[in-house]
Amino acid sequence: MTDHIHNAQYDELSRQIVQLYGYMERIKSEIAAVKHPNSKVDHFNKAADQLAAIVTATEEATNTIMAATEATSTIAEKLKDHIRIGEVTDDLDLIIDNANKVFEACTFQDITGQRIGKIVQTMNLLEGTLSSLVVIIGKDSIAALPVQPTDKDEHNGEAMHGPALASEESVSQADIDAMFD
């Protein structure tokens, strides 16, 4: 009877070890897909750069919106000082009120920047955790796996190239315009 129990325990232990080995292989593959030592693409830095570009573009657009709104508001204030026609003065007051609403709405940029900053912090923590896992599992073990292609989105097969970052080479608008001349 005890031999039967020992054999059952041995079989169960063997099954669990095989299952654990399978999990470890899957973990290695998933880590390699994101942080492969031989990959030319640093997914975390690339994502952080894209997020930084969003913050910069949002800030630039907000500054342009605010400058144009301030200029419009200033013009409306000047016109209001010179024009004493009731209906026109009321319309100028509406322009000034709408300009103030635009200023208030532009606070989205600050909130967006703060939220994206938190996302980048979380990504940095994840990258640190993955780097630790690479060390624990063994860099050579992960490096032995194939580097996954990175230019396609595995969910829908579309190219994942967007607008080029300032640090990347891109085709200029002048080059694009020249193609149509």
Can you give a write-up of this model?
GO terms for molecular function: catalytic activity. Pfam families: CheZ (PF04344). The protein is mostly helical and 181 residues long. Among the domains are: 50 residues; 32 residues. The protein has 6 helices and no strands. Helix 2 packs antiparallel against helix 4. The mean pLDDT is 83.
Q: Tell me what portion of residues adopts beta-strand conformation.
A: under 5%
Stretches where pLDDT is under 50 for at least 5 consecutive residues are none
Q: What string, H for helix and E for strand, traces the elements in order?
A: HHHHHH
Radius of gyration: 29 Å
What is the end-to-end distance?
90 Å
Largest sheet: none
The level of helicity is over 70%
Shape: elongated
Helical element count? Answer: 6
The total count of strands amounts to 0
Derived from helix and strand composition plus strand pairing, the structural class reads mainly alpha
GO molecular function: catalytic activity
GO biological process, one term: regulation of chemotaxis
Pfam families: CheZ
Region (Disordered): 148-174
